[in-house]
Amino acid sequence: MNSGTEISRPPSFREAFRFWLKLGFISFGGPAGQIAIMHGEVVENRRWND
Question: In terms of Cα–Cα distance, which of 25, 12, 26 is closest to 46?
C-alpha cells in the first residue's frame, strides 16, 4: 500500500528490463527464492505495486 506521502510511478521499460535481467542471473533457490527477491525489490524497495 502507498503511504500517501510518496507518489509511485510505473517503471520505464528500461528499468523493468534491467530488473528482470538481474533476477534471471540470480536464479538460485528456485521459485520460492525468486519470489522472495522479487517481493523485496519490486514491492518494498521500488514500490512498483500500484
Answer: 12
pTM (two decimals):
0.52
Cell numbers 521459485 correspond to 31
Nearest partner of 29 among 19, 44, 18, 39, judged by Cα: 39
Beta-carbon contacts of 38 under 8 Å, excluding residues fewer than 6 positions away, are 23
Give the Cα separation of 33 and 23 in Å (integer).
10
User: Are the C-beta atoms of 46 and 9 separated by less than 8 Å?
Assistant: no
Report the amino acid identity of residue 5.
T
**Residue 47 C-alpha from the chain's centroid:** 8
Mean pLDDT of all residues in 19-46? 81
